[in-house]
Every structure is written in C-alpha cells, then in structure tokens.
Amino acid sequence: MFEGERCPYCNKQFLKDEDIVVCPICGTPHHRECYKIHNHCFNESNHGSFEWKSSHQVTKDSEDLKSKVESLNTHSICPVCGTNNDIQAKYCSKCGTLLPLNKPTNQLFESVPLQVQQVSTNERIDGIPIRDWLVYLGPTSVSHIRTYLNQNNKNSIWGFAIGALLFPVLYFLYYRVWGLSAVILIVDIICNAPTILLQVNTSYVPFPGMTSGEFVTLANILSYVYLIFVFLISLFAKTIVRKNSVKAIKRIRRSCNNENDYSILLSRKACPNKYVMGCLLFIYVLYLLSIIFL
Fold this sequence. Notes:
This protein is mainly α. 55% of the residues lie in helices and 5% in strands.
C-alpha cells in the first residue's frame, strides 16, 4: 500500500512488506524504527487540519487544480454577484461591476509555486481550505500560503515580510489588521515627533531645563526605538496576518447561510480594501513628505 512512498523522518522509500507505523489521526506512514526514535507522528503539530495523502493523490489534486484554473479561459466570475461572464467581458452582465483582468491560464498556474501547486485547494490551514485563503489574501496569497505551509512543516512562528519592514502601517492596513496599524502609526508619530520638531526649529526644546543637545539625543534614541519596534514586528508580520485572517474568514463563514453567499462575501471582504487603501496611501504619502521636507 505504501510501497514507493517516503518516510517523513528519514526520507527513505518504503519497501515491499516493510514494517510501517501509520498515524491513527492523520494517516502519515513512518518506518517503525523512526517512529520509535521520535515517539510521535511527524505531522503531530498539524493534527486537526492535516490529512496525509499519497504521492498519487497529490498529483491528482494538482491536476484538478490546474483543470480548475484552465476553466478561467472561458469564464470570468464577478467578484460581487458571482455571475459567470464571458472571458472577454469587461463588465458583469448582471450587476455591471468592472471585472478583474484575467491572466492567460499557463501564466496564472505557472506563477503558483510548485509547493502550492502540489497541495489540494481543499487542504486546510488552520481549519480553512486553501482555496479560501487564495480568495481572501488576494494578489499576494501564494507568498503567504507558502510561508504558512513552511510554518506548519517546521512548527515555526517566523513570518518575515519586507513590506512590513519598509511600510508597516500600509502593510497591515492592506491585510485589514486595523488595530495593529493604528498602534504602529501612534508609535511612529510619538517616536518621530521630536525629529520633525527639530527639522522645523533646530533649537526647539520642549521641556524646561533640557538643552537642545539633550533633545537631539532624545530624538535619535526614539528614532532607533521605532526602527527596532518595526523590525521586530516585521519578523512575525505574516504570522500576525495569518491569525487575523483566520478570525476574519471564520467570522464571514458564520454570517452566511449558504456557500454562494459565503463566496460572494469572502470576495467582497478580500484584501485589500481598495477605497480605504487609496485614502490612507494619500494621507501616508503626505505624512512622509512632511518628514522629508519640513
């Protein structure tokens, strides 16, 4: 039954009639000796959201996913009402919504890394099907799913994101992490306010008894504190987005009575919120310009 498959611990193929231990929870096969050494299933940390599949099943799931992607050659689904439109249509025939541009099938599928291609869209991360993650996280979903799969395999919480390091407020607004975005913005203003005040007036001193030199030192310290704060957050940025997205997707699921309503609402609530992002990007650019030129 498992001949040709590999033990996840030693990565060696199972031979015919070899002594194998199968996890009763997820179905992962192991060499009995490997299982004795580690005394637990290789995928124990993923129990509840993972089910082992043979390499043949993974290949079949990959082909099914590719087949679904290829169906986009003939239809364009409206993200608002869910209506199937002709692939050449620019606007939805039912509600008039501007339809998203469609990539050629081969480009769309090939842009998905092999690691994600070989996972069924019904596979779950934190109890949520990957297909729902693909919808909710939007254009950057593949990068995040690849990170989450690695986190599950390595039992890790690291999730560095360069966007969170360079533009932390916009990064978390993009993924609808509203609370943390507000906290970062407040910390940003507090830590960089002394620097802005010094750019406006180099001799400015806010407190009686403090010299201008001491205020400059304070401004520099606060700037470094902010950089360290942002760097630490960026190390776990994708993990933070993961936890926030799980709550959001489950909340959407609870509010819907059927799959059709769920699919439509999930698309509407997907990242990013373009209107909010547009306004906030404009405000944030003005804020950055004030730091640079004032």
